Amino acid sequence: QVQLVESGGGLVQAGGSLRLSCAASGRTFGNSAMGWFRQAPGKEREFVATISRNGVNTQYEDSVKGRFAISRDNAKNTVYLQMNSLKPEDTAVYYCAARVGASSYSTSAYISGYNYWGQGTQVTVSS
User: Fold this and answer.
1) What are the pLDDT digits (tens) for 96-120?
2) What mean pLDDT, rounded, does the chain reach?
3) To 10 degrees, the CA torsion angle through 86, 89, 91, 95?
4) DSSP calls for 23-76
5) Residues 105-108: contacts with CB under 8 Å, at least 24 apart
6) What are the tens digits of pLDDT across the range 51-78?
């Protein structure tokens, strides 16, 4: 069993920055690809970013490329999402997800590719 706890969300003005963190329990973090997804009110959950278990490969949704950066610290069992130049359309609940048992270089942009999910953290960007 893997427990994921997100933190770092909040209210920020457009153009501002936030750094989300996701702390994972258990000893499977190093064997897991990690992802960030988001869900805005009235919309389906969508992919934001993913990182391979070895941290070498990353993948981003087109609208966040160049503004968001995903990273991980396997020693701390934590994955991060640095969000810069935030826009009102980035407002959503952001979820961390783990894909336990992934190969070293694999990533996934699909919800179905993940075994475990956190409870989410709210990000609100005001105009």
Assistant:
1) 999 999 899 999 999 999 999 999 9
2) 96
3) -90
4) EE-SS-GGGEEEEEEEE-TTS--EEEEEE-TTS--EEE-GGGTTTEEEEEETTT
5) 105/52, 105/54, 105/56, 105/57, 106/33, 106/52, 106/53, 106/57, 107/33, 107/35, 107/50, 107/51, 107/52, 107/57, 107/58, 107/59, 108/33, 108/35, 108/50
6) 999 999 999 999 999 999 999 999 999 9
